[in-house]
Amino acid sequence: MKLDSAASTLEPVKSKKTPVKKNTKTSKPIHSKRKTIVRDISWLSFNARVLQEAADTTVPLYERIRFLGIFSNNLDEFFRVRVATLKRMDIMGRSAKMHLEENPDEILADIQSTVISQQAEFNRIWHEIEEELKHEKIILHTEKQLNREQQKFVQNYFNEEVRTNIIPLMIEGIQHMPYLRDKSIYLAVVLAREDNSIRQKFALIEVPRSVLSRFLILPSKDGEHSIMLLEDVIRYNLPHIFSYFGYDKFSSWVIKVTRDAELDIDNDISTSIIHQIEKGIKARRKGKPVRFIYDQQIDPLLLEYLMRRLGLSKKDNLIPGGRIHNFKDFMDFPESVFTRERMRRKILTHPLFHNAPSVMKVMQEQDVMLHLPYHSFDTVIDLLREAAMDPDVTTIKITAYRLARNSKIINALINAVRNGKQVVVVLELRARFDEEANLQWKERLEEEGVKVLFGVPGMKVHAKLCVIKKRTGNTTTQFGFVSTGNLNERTAKVYGDHCLLTSNRNIMADINRIFAFLESPRHDVKHLQACKTLIVSPYNMRRFFLRMIDREIRNARRKKPASITLKMNSLSDDEMIFKLYDAAKAGVEVKLIIRGICCAYTENKKWKRNMEAVSIIDEYLEHARVFVFHNHGQEKVFIASSDWMIRNLDHRVEAAAAITDPSIKRELIEILNIQLNSNVKVRIIDNDQRNAYKHASGRKMRAQIEIGKYLSEKSYS
């Protein structure tokens, strides 16, 4: 089977109009006039790293399929958001060119050619995986590959489960073309007669993958596992669906439309933000098409008809693909068919909480850093559950960005309200693609008596904060946390993050100031200005870290040791990048661990010292943000919720915390050193975005394995 989803060439992403110029001494920028790499081109390079994991034969088969699904899902969101934005900017003309430093249509052309060229590699990987699945006696059947028992099984399943969930549309007889929903896939069908006695007709059927599993496990021989995709179940039953029209020949191909998913929400504070979100979600469902994917074997007349009815042209990212679309569903490929169970890494309970009767008591004695997913997220849930039941706890305030579907966090907060606590939840309604879920959480929380805040007009609340107030007699004690990741127990099992559990008075005072800012009717910035320990955007985070880099630059110029180590998801803010260039020029040792977008060039012949940049893609998603500055040998270490992007530094409420506990500080530095010294699953980020693997000289080190060992062997006093 061939696939729809674009695959990566795993080669450097190069602009057609400004090719890479090679230099034997040092690499030159991909776009010679640009001082940074185009953000969207860097993103495509990141997604190529995801595809590399799918191509890696040392990765378990189930995980390789999952990485293909992740790649496809990433690409869907990229088109829905970034490509849609570029198309909007293309309409703006000159002003957009000034902002991007080149024409949006040139970037779109680069994206289009890169995505199309990725198709061959994606298909190659899937073909290889299919062969390995067959070797494991796991077989995907099409509608033409069923034995009699399976045919009967598929027909019965269709009649009992599928038939009532589909609505066949004879599109030629409909005046206005039916709206094709984003995230959905459709069977485009040609109905004909073998003897050509009736003119052929076109039809569309939406595959009901939102209500039925994409995968149907079929009756199989002993030792074998047969699977059929939902669209092929429908294909097999096309004669039953259209039998009363008199047709006896049916051909079908899967198509998919990707739509503009940006929410147009203005900052008119007189309009309810909730109504704006609801309006935006409805508008998203009818967003303009930004990509049309189709089976490259599709009937040419049907393709021409669909393009005409959908109002598409060749400029609308028409992607010829294979038989399978929406490969993101393969992230949920049936795990039960694999005879070899996946090796799951052991999740540790932090040693300080082993047999501890009270989480808050431990926190009162010392700060604790949870390193997720190596440490269990249950400790955070236990903290909130304890606070909900403790009769001395009066208040819980917390920010929430992305929550699990069946959130234990929410359950603990509701229990707290029922136990008479005041609970305040800052719920970010504009968390992209989680808006609907968060609106539902809002309703449930408010029904239970939770005070729900919706953030700040014009900016998202992305900080991960909590404060718990406990009053015993005349004494008030506060507990809480600052985290790099979301309060989501599902993703906490696979996202690499850090969560500082603390009762530090200075940190708690600043968290209270941030909540005062969020709760004040006019969002008075004086509350942020009063913060003395936490670094907060949009108030002072940019300025603070620029000063930290400047300090290292001064030390380097004075011939003193100077170094900066930064770990984040994305680095795209020009001002921060240019300051890092200044540091490299001055001779500061700059080391970067960037999972995703990295718009910084890392080599320049004018610099005293090139930057070292790597990206780690492995079983866990590297999600943490950690910043380390040498500071005359007295390292300054910070964890943060924010990447170094314009949106994080200027248009979101974010928080970074300085780590003062010496043992935790050393722990974070050692974890970063493990990642920097590892040579398995590590790609080098260079000027050409080549994604070359780091050379494994000597002992092979795989960061996520080594960190797990380090934490499991670590003792805590």
UniProtKB/TrEMBL annotation:
<dbReference type="InterPro" id="IPR025198">
    <property type="entry name" value="PPK_N_dom"/>
</dbReference>
<comment type="function">
    <text>Catalyzes the reversible transfer of the terminal phosphate of ATP to form a long-chain polyphosphate (polyP).</text>
</comment>
<dbReference type="InterPro" id="IPR003414">
    <property type="entry name" value="PP_kinase"/>
</dbReference>
<keyword id="KW-0479">Metal-binding</keyword>
<feature type="binding site">
    <location>
        <position position="74"/>
    </location>
    <ligand>
        <name>ATP</name>
    </ligand>
</feature>
<feature type="binding site">
    <location>
        <position position="402"/>
    </location>
    <ligand>
        <name>Mg(2+)</name>
    </ligand>
</feature>
<feature type="domain" description="Polyphosphate kinase C-terminal">
    <location>
        <begin position="534"/>
        <end position="704"/>
    </location>
</feature>
<dbReference type="InterPro" id="IPR024953">
    <property type="entry name" value="PP_kinase_middle"/>
</dbReference>
<keyword id="KW-0808">Transferase</keyword>
<dbReference type="Pfam" id="PF13089">
    <property type="entry name" value="PP_kinase_N"/>
</dbReference>
<dbReference type="InterPro" id="IPR041108">
    <property type="entry name" value="PP_kinase_C_1"/>
</dbReference>
<dbReference type="InterPro" id="IPR025200">
    <property type="entry name" value="PPK_C_dom2"/>
</dbReference>
<protein>
    <recommendedName>
        <fullName>Polyphosphate kinase</fullName>
        <ecNumber>2.7.4.1</ecNumber>
    </recommendedName>
</protein>
<dbReference type="Pfam" id="PF17941">
    <property type="entry name" value="PP_kinase_C_1"/>
</dbReference>
<feature type="domain" description="Polyphosphate kinase middle">
    <location>
        <begin position="149"/>
        <end position="333"/>
    </location>
</feature>
<comment type="similarity">
    <text>Belongs to the polyphosphate kinase 1 (PPK1) family.</text>
</comment>
<feature type="binding site">
    <location>
        <position position="495"/>
    </location>
    <ligand>
        <name>ATP</name>
    </ligand>
</feature>
<feature type="binding site">
    <location>
        <position position="623"/>
    </location>
    <ligand>
        <name>ATP</name>
    </ligand>
</feature>
<feature type="domain" description="Polyphosphate kinase C-terminal">
    <location>
        <begin position="359"/>
        <end position="521"/>
    </location>
</feature>
<keyword id="KW-0418">Kinase</keyword>
<keyword id="KW-0597">Phosphoprotein</keyword>
<dbReference type="Pfam" id="PF02503">
    <property type="entry name" value="PP_kinase"/>
</dbReference>
<feature type="binding site">
    <location>
        <position position="432"/>
    </location>
    <ligand>
        <name>Mg(2+)</name>
    </ligand>
</feature>
<feature type="region of interest" description="Disordered">
    <location>
        <begin position="1"/>
        <end position="31"/>
    </location>
</feature>
<dbReference type="Pfam" id="PF13090">
    <property type="entry name" value="PP_kinase_C"/>
</dbReference>
<keyword id="KW-0067">ATP-binding</keyword>
<keyword id="KW-0460">Magnesium</keyword>
<dbReference type="GO" id="GO:0008976">
    <property type="term" value="F:polyphosphate kinase activity"/>
</dbReference>
<feature type="active site" description="Phosphohistidine intermediate">
    <location>
        <position position="462"/>
    </location>
</feature>
<feature type="binding site">
    <location>
        <position position="595"/>
    </location>
    <ligand>
        <name>ATP</name>
    </ligand>
</feature>
<keyword id="KW-0547">Nucleotide-binding</keyword>
<feature type="compositionally biased region" description="Basic residues">
    <location>
        <begin position="15"/>
        <end position="31"/>
    </location>
</feature>
<dbReference type="InterPro" id="IPR036830">
    <property type="entry name" value="PP_kinase_middle_dom_sf"/>
</dbReference>
<feature type="domain" description="Polyphosphate kinase N-terminal">
    <location>
        <begin position="38"/>
        <end position="140"/>
    </location>
</feature>
<dbReference type="InterPro" id="IPR036832">
    <property type="entry name" value="PPK_N_dom_sf"/>
</dbReference>
